[in-house]
Amino acid sequence: MSPFKLSLINPDNDDPDETVELDDSVVQELKKVVDATPELTIGDALREGVQHVVRARRRPEL
């Protein structure tokens, strides 16, 4: 199976776009969680995951 890719594109600035390949097994587990949780979408799950990383790793100076 081809790797899943997540692209981060911000057309409002000159920052370079970034594409990240996600491990197939992680994506399959994510799909199982989303399928088992009717109120959760893939987009919601990805946003929640990004928010979790930001909160967990934010440095005080940021």
Q: Largest sheet, order of strands side by side? A: 1-2
- In N-to-C order, the SSE pattern is EEHH
Averaging pLDDT over every residue, what do you get?
89
Per DSSP E runs of 2 or more residues, the count of β-strands stands at 2
End-to-end Cα distance: 39 Å
Task: Kindly estimate the percentage of residues that lie in beta strands according to DSSP.
Answer: 15-25%
Radius of gyration: 14 Å
Secondary structure: helix percent: 40-55%
The helix count comes to 2
Main β-sheet description: 2 strands, antiparallel
Class based on secondary structure composition and strand pairing: alpha+beta
Shape: globular
Are there runs of 5+ residues with pLDDT below 50, and where? Answer: none
Describe the structure.
- The structure is a single chain.
- This protein has 62 residues and is an alpha+beta fold.
- Helix content is 47%, strand content 16%.
- It contains two helices and two strands.
- Strands 1-2 form a two-stranded antiparallel sheet.
- It is globular, with a radius of gyration of 14 Å.
Brief write-up:
The protein has 62 residues and is an alpha+beta fold. Helix content is 47%, strand content 16%.
